[in-house]
Design brief:
three-stranded antiparallel sheet, Rossmann fold, alpha/beta, single chain, 14 helices, elongated, binds zinc ion, binds nicotinamide-adenine-dinucleotide
Amino acid sequence: MSSLDAICDRARGADGLIVALTGAGISAESGIPTFRGEEGYWTVGSEVYRPQQMATNAAYQRMPDDVWQWYLFRRAVCRNAAPNLAHAALARLDQALGERFRLITQNVDGLHLRAGNPLARTYQIHGNIDYQRCGAACCEAMWPLPDDLDVPAAPEQAKSYQLTDATAAVLRCPECGGRSRPHVLWFDECYDEPLFRFESSLKAAAEAALLIVVGTSASTTLPHHVVNLAAEAGAGIIDINIGDNAFGRVADQLANGIALRGPASEHVPAIADRLLA
Ligand code: NAD
Ligand code: ZN
């Protein structure tokens, strides 16, 4: 373990990339629930599903309308949310560091892009809930969901919400006319480069001088590769989380690492200030 100032000062003097890896925790203070709390549960008929069951291709194949309803509700929650101080601090780092900065996010909420991080340096490794693509993968195209979908954002209304014919009609692939699907990576699917920037993320991690991990429970595979590659490359690692997690333990064991416990909106701006001082 090292001091935060020492880690930041070392990264400022190094040649490597400054890389941020974010999870649902960075958006929790914007009012978007993480997957760990009860807010994530969803009822279909008499069954209650966990996100890890809903966010699967298997569920989409079995009950596509119900999966779409869940996503359209979550998309409305994301659109009603605004970036917070932690998102703004990462946008500030991108603007100041340019090509020396990369952002790898597990979030599908699009808040990093809305805060000002450019798509070219922002790897949305689990997709973006505002986009759809062909449900049969007839092409790699993705296109935005329309602005004016009539979807309730309040959970109590959403529970009884049914897809209208008008909404179902826009959830079609323009190439083959089949059903579209949300542009997200489901739990029973694999990462790739064209849709999810898999190789780009690994490359950034291997070239990192500093990795800033924010609000992730360390429960998906690519973030583990990113943290391991950065550690092997000798990067400093800072983990920010309100609770204990595997990446915090890695950071604490490194000579050039630290686990900071507390909200993202407090720690990320302080780190940006120190890196840009
Ligand atoms: P997660 O829900 O598994 O874990 C969230 C982590 O954030 C936890 O470790 C928690 O302790 C921490 N946290 C909560 N509030 C925080 C705060 N204010 N400051 C700092 N840390 C805080 O999320 P995950 O690790 O991103 O992975 C689960 C999957 O959920 C991912 O695939 C992601 O795509 C998806 N997801 C995305 C969103 C979103 O886009 N906002 C929301 C929910 C889930
Ligand atoms: Zn198609």
